């Protein structure tokens, strides 16, 4: 029987990491998607342990200090987000295939402590398509878009740090390929 292991999915801004992960959550119940801890307060409708683990700033500090965070970062200069090592280890101990969707900084932190994990880079089909997706979201100002595109250039250069690359030219196809790289059978649709 295949030994379950952690698969880390990372890639540049606007490549569709969240969309691919959501597709996997909806279509591959055998994959356990990690739930992040955060210091920000819950938004309406968010459920503890489903959307996030909501913790105080002091509790987050203690988790970092004790080595309980597999990876973590300050997001937008305000709130902290991170992956609880115990949750990932518990899911793997239960025989689940674990998928961690994080940014490049987090992927590098995981690689430091769990180099045996499977690292998958999600790439856009082209630079122009990535720009189209970012601008098409309409969630950032023009200045923020330019900042994200500058960051994306650096993120794209990190592709060789990963074990595999999946091109997100089609969400279902990319999700199926990722699941296959996790050692699971892709669904026939």
Q: TL;DR?
A:
The chain has 189 residues and is an alpha/beta fold. It has helices spanning 17-27, 57-65, 85-93, 104-113, 127-137, 142-156, 171-181; strands at 6-10, 31-33, 36-38, 53-54, 69-75, 79-84, 97-101, 118-123, 164-167.
Keywords:
alpha/beta, four-stranded mixed beta sheet, five-stranded parallel beta sheet, single chain, Rossmann fold, 7 helices, 9 strands, 189 residues
Query: What is the CATH first-level class name?
Result: Alpha Beta
Large-scale geometry? globular
* Fraction of residues in helix: 40-55%
Structural class by secondary-structure content: alpha/beta
Global mean pLDDT: 89
CATH T-level fold name:
Rossmann fold
How do the strands of the widest beta sheet line up side by side? Answer: 2-7-1-8-9
Strand content: 15-25%
CATH superfamily: P-loop containing nucleotide triphosphate hydrolases
Total count of strands: 9
How many structural domains?
1
- How many individual helices? 7
Contiguous uncertain segments of 5+ residues: none
Largest sheet: 5 strands, parallel
Order of helices and strands: EHEEEHEEHEHEHHEH
What's the CATH architecture name? 3-Layer(aba) Sandwich
Distance between the termini: 26 Å
Description:
This protein has helices at about 15-25, 55-65, 85-95, 105-115, 125-135, 140-155, 170-180; strands at about 5-10, 30-35, 35-40, 55, 70-75, 80-85, 95-100, 120-125, 165. The protein is α/β, with parallel strands linked by helices and about 190 residues long. It has a single domain, classed as Rossmann fold, CATH 3.40.50.300. The strands form two sheets. Strands 2-7-1-8-9 form a five-stranded parallel beta sheet, with helices on both faces. It has a four-stranded mixed beta sheet with strand order 4-3-6-5. Helix 1 packs across helix 7 (about 170-180).
